[in-house]
Design brief:
The structure holds two protein chains of two kinds. By secondary structure, chain A is of the alpha/beta class. Chain A has helices at about 1-60, 95-110, 120-130, 150-165, 195-205, 220-300; strands at about 80-85, 115-120, 170-175, 185-190, 215. In chain B, strands 1, 2, 3, 4, 5, 6, 7, 8 and 9 form a nine-stranded mixed sheet that branches. Chains A and B meet through helix 1, helix 4, strand 5 and helix 6 of A and strand 5 and strand 7 of B.
Chain lengths: ~300, ~140
């Protein structure tokens, strides 16, 4: 009978698929753990850096200007050239992870040509390219194993564009893990630095208040030159790692439910297979019995 | 004398991106400034914020022992007799991978010969400086 063979083939193919989804589940959980650990290692450094940065900006001379700290308040909204860093995964099969980020990116994009897109991850690149949305082609960064080095390269690229006044605003769209089940797409503004805008507000409240006095050597500009890229690097690194964690978490969940569905299907198919097999055996017995009886009757026994 | 000893140390905290290098008291600190010159810090130094250059970083712990590191650029601040150094990397001489540093140096030297944008040039220069400082620190302070 053909169905018994068909069922057996399906059971085998589902078994093979289960092997793959199960392996992907294990790989994802392993990568997730490693990425989390790396983030935890670097976290204290960037917390300190944030505090240091606040202190430096608080102690800058009143009339200090620097290309990195330019707050671009004078640029009217319609002329604002925005850049978006969109962090997606390199591969699909991660539930709604990629879809959520890309949906948000598309909502943020204005139809005019003032926006620039920098996409991390292959899935996002393919998505925008297939829709004919222009993305920066030289920005070829993978979402796999985020490193400080990659974050630094991205930060430098953004600062270069910003200092050259090619963009007025840089945001990063990434996914943050709220808890192990819930994930959230975040749109965070990197440049102009929020600290600088805050300072302008704070300074008015601090008029006449005594502040500790710091000597700045060799010059504020040189410190800013180093601190701002590092600060931004830290931020981007955090976002990359967090997204990477989310990707693997989403993939883990997707693979987990794939495993579950596969197993459910296997049970059903096994029952079906056994039934068909049993039916075939029953039928054969009936046939043999019927044949035997017919023979017996013919011989008149 | 005892009083002098107590007064002669300051709090020192060195943080690198991947590890907490040192947290404790120190008698002296010598760091490389952003112009390449060396600056020494003793206890009760005036409060300041400074840029840390690529190069050697060394401090003397209260027991009189010197510790050497090759550091990348970062910031250093002194406030209330406490020094805080934030840098991307700080490596001990024995941690330095000489082979890798040599490769990085050769790569940077090669890149220097090419025509580069100002930014590229600066980046190559920084990586050359990092490689050279690693090599120097590992040469001078390893196996002594």
């Amino acid at each position: 009978m053909a169905t018994i063979r068909e069922t057996r083939d399906r059971i085998n193919s589902i078994n093979d698929t289960l092997k793959i989804t199960n392996a992907m589940y294990l790989i994802s959980s392993n990568k997730l753990r490693r990425a989390k650990q790396e983030l935890a290692e670097t976290e204290p450094y960037f917390n300190y850096l944030h505090l240091q940065m606040e202190r430096i900006i608080r102690h800058l001379p009143q009339d200090f200007t620097h290309p990195y700290l330019d707050s671009r308040v004078h640029v009217p909204d319609e002329d604002l050239r925005r850049a978006f860093i969109v962090v997606t995964a390199d591969k699909g099969l991660a539930g709604a992870y990629n879809h959520n980020v890309l949906k948000m990116a598309e909502e943020k994009l204005k139809p005019d040509a003032n926006d620039m897109l920098f996409v991390v991850g292959e899935t996002g690149r393919v998505y925008f390219q297939s829709r004919g949305i222009h993305i920066d082609e030289q920005f070829q960064y993978t979402a796999q194993n985020p490193t400080l080095h990659r974050a630094r390269a991205i930060a430098f690229r953004m600062l270069e564009l910003y200092a050259a006044k090619k963009v007025d605003e840089v945001s990063i769209l990434y996914t943050r893990m709220v808890n192990s089940i819930e994930m959230q797409v975040i749109d965070e503004q990197l440049l102009p630095l929020r600290l600088v805008r805050q300072k302008q507000v704070n300074m008015e409240g601090l008029q006449g208040v005594y502040q500790e006095n710091f000597e700045i050597i060799p010059s504020a500009a040189e410190i800013i030159d180093d601190v701002v890229p590092t600060y931004l690097t830290g931020f981007i690194y955090g976002a990359l790692v967090e997204s990477y964690c989310c990707e693997h978490n989403a993939r883990m969940m997707a693979m987990d439910s794939a495993n579950k569905n596969g197993r459910d299907m296997l049970t059903k198919l096994n029952i079906q297979y056994n039934r068909v097999r049993q039916a075939k055996i029953t039928q054969e017995i009936t046939e043999v019995c019927a044949g035997a009886r017919a023979q017996r009757e013919r011989h008149g026994l | 004398m005892a009083e002098e000893n107590v007064g002669a140390t300051f709090g020192l905290e060195i943080m690198a991106a991947r590890n907490n290098v040192y947290q404790g008291r120190a008698k002296q600190l010598i760091f490389t400034a952003s112009d390449g010159g060396k600056v020494g810090i003793l206890a009760k130094h005036q409060d300041f914020i400074g840029a840390l250059g690529i190069g050697e970083l060394q401090y003397e712990t209260p027991d009189g022992e010197w510790h050497y590191y090759a550091s990348s650029s970062g910031t250093i601040s002194m406030a209330n007799n406490r020094v805080l150094i934030l840098t991307m990397t700080a490596e001990k001489p024995e941690e330095i991978d000489r082979r890798r540093a040599e490769d990085a140096r050769d790569r940077a030297l090669e890149a220097m010969r090419q025509k580069q944008s100002i930014l590229e040039y600066r980046r190559t220069q920084a990586s050359l400086a990092r490689a050279l400082s690693r090599l120097r620190v590992s040469e001078e302070h390893h196996f002594i």
